[in-house]
Amino acid sequence: MPLSIDVLTLFPRMLDGFLTESILGKGLAAGHLAVRVHDLRAWSTDKHRTADDRPFGGGAGMVMKPEPVFAAIEQLQTPGCRRIYLTPDGTPLSPALAQELSREQHLVFLSGHYEGIDQRIRDRVIDQEISIGDYVLTNGTLAAAVVIDALARFIPGVLGEEKSLTHESFTSKLLDFPQYTRPAEFRGMSVPEVLLSGNHAEIEKWRVARQLEKTRQVRPDLLK
Ligand code: ADE
Known about the structure:
34% of the residues lie in helices and 19% in strands. It is an alpha/beta fold.
């Protein structure tokens, strides 16, 4: 059974392009995974379809109400599924975490308001909280897309070539080497000679040297 993903959000249309374009769109069409996006307001019961309210204790901004979220998750969850809340104060997304998620059967993603959601949601119907980085988005919908994109690449068949997975940044703990394609000469800039040489040992040596150089410049923390 392919991995099945439900996304709960107040802004379902933010994911339209994401789900139809590129490698992810093809992966979905080919049935390597299934993603369903749900508007949280479908579970709100009052006539204004409200999903948020003012915080107890005061303060700026709105807080996502528990009732629609509990109702939605209780309807969508399956035994053994992992229920994930996207939040800047969650566990940082890593390649290892993305790979771990890619091996699950069923994921439910909850995208919240940046101001926050009622703590009782996190206490009772969330299994894991994930952050995609130390910056704050206006809501978690794009964060859910990022996590889905990152995990989809680990699902067999989603990427054409298995090779593109093993060779990339972060699986090797080094940043990528520069890539070139035709033409060999463009506006006075030529492709490094070694890449045209056909000497695979030399090419490999050159690539590793460039990776070390780039990593030292941009992410010295990865070399420690
Ligand atoms: N929601 C808002 N900012 C976020 C972030 N950095 N990661 C995950 N979810 C978020």
